[in-house]
Amino acid sequence: MMRDVIVETSSGALRGKQQRGVSCWKGIPFAQPPLGALRWRAPQRLQPWTGIRDATRFGSASAQPDSIVDLFNSPSSTPLAGEDCLYLNIWSPAADQARRPVLVWLHGGAFVSGSGAEPWTDGSSFARNGDIVVVTLNYRLGALGFLYLDGLTASLDEAVSNRGLLDQIAALEWIQENIAAFGGDPECITLAGESAGAMSIGSLLAVPRAHGLFHRAILESGACRNVLTRHAAMRIAQTFLAQLGLDAARFASLETIEIARILAAQQQCGSGIHNFSPVIDGTLLTAPPLELIATGSASDIPLLIGTNRDEARMFTLTSQDHVVVNQKALQQLFGAQASQVLEIYRQARADGSAPQAWIDILTDRAFRIPAIRLAEQQLKHNPHVWMYRFDWPTPAFGGRLGACHALEIPFAWNTLDSDLAQLFTDEAPNRQELGDIMHAAWISFIRTGNPNLDPRRAGLPDWPCYNLEQRPTMLFNQASQLAHDPQSAERQCWPAIS
Q1: pLDDT digits (tens, 9 = 90+) for 86-115
Q2: What angle, rounded to 10 degrees, do the helices at 196-204 and 163-178 form?
Q3: Which pTM does this prediction carry?
Q4: Residues noted as catalytic
Q5: For the chain, which residues make up each domain, given as ranges?
Q6: Sequence-ordered list of residues with C-beta below 8 angstroms from that of 449, at least 6 positions apart, any chain
Q7: What Å distances lie between residue 102 and 25, 137, 254, CA to CA?
Q8: What is the pLDDT of residues 321-363, one digit of tens each?
Q9: Is the dihedral of CA 370, 270, 203, 200 positive or negative?
Q10: Topology adopted by domain 3-324+355-491
Q11: DSSP codes, 209-252
């Protein structure tokens, strides 16, 4: 049985629903709709409304092209996408001023797709099992969120770069102002994300304006590497504008051009999956995030960081039988040591396959090594860093995915019964046992800043902080275990890669 739950915020009253001990409010605006003249501007403070606003349906996701994940969602579970997208969603045990720990989630999707309404990030289990308030949110994606216009035009009044990051900051500011009314503690906020969401956190750890808006961070399969220089971002912007046929005299029309044309031009900007991502603009983000973290920009933030054993298999699912080693890219990465490195990776795989070794190199290049580099730099200022690797191989798709990108999400969130999770886990036996353990570890970190479980709880060994001598890493699998410097030989192949 559901009942209405009304909460008063700084902008007006919201009506949510309470069911099975969890109250939920969906589609809460946290900034003005970024429409028309606001399309390329920083998010603007929300204008108050009168009366009680309905908050029982998800708001629109950011405008985006079709993605592989969208194909796995039923139409009824996928919210509409459009430019009016700055909404967040809240799950809470009760709107009772109890000051519970808060989890804020940034979704992934390569900065071009995704939303805060994905079925496997439903916050009910965290609220019910951890007494935690959960917030998921949308931010502008693709060109709308990250097209770099600085230096190209003066005709767009007040246009800014890094709009997607600014949206995330605006949401965090709204949460600071309002979360107490939903039963949350604004002084105990864990910011978590996966893939592009974790990469966003990697940037926010280096942004002074975000300091104090969150107090712990969980980075799943993303770190600090995926940012653009101004030169690279400007080159992408020039390509984008050329696709639209715009010259300098017509840049102002970017405020009114159809969103379908923007998405089409966005997709013609090259094959890189992060052509639209945070930019070192000199204003919000003043230097590469890893450099700023190395100087102590996030010195007060405990971190839980990890990757999945077979990240890149998600992106090679349809072509694994035809994967070949990119010898040119291998040479660019490792120079004269290229053949030796490939052999090290081959020996690490039971089948000794060069194509599978190449997929592992892609995994390390994009995900594992950047995660390790973040941990190494943060340790200079804060010992409270924990590292994990998710190793559980899914039997879905004939076992071709292994422990692929994003597979850990429904385990950490205890949403293994969602349709999307079942598609990727194939209802494997005993998967819930691992889900219970991971979910409990995430709850522990959110509540205490430490992922170690109550010693009376079986299933997870003692998990020490990461250090550069032993490099302890929790390997989540059917039988989870602590390993010291896993994949050590492969790690040592990357001395200069950040």
Answers
A1: 999 999 999 998 999 999 999 999 999 999
A2: 80
A3: 0.96
A4: 195, 311, 405
A5: 3-324+355-491
A6: 215, 216, 302, 384
A7: 15, 13, 38
A8: 678 899 999 999 999 999 999 999 999 988 888 999 999 999 9
A9: negative
A10: Rossmann fold (3.40.50)
A11: GGTTS-SEEEEES--S---B-HHHHHHHHHHHHHHTT--GGGGG
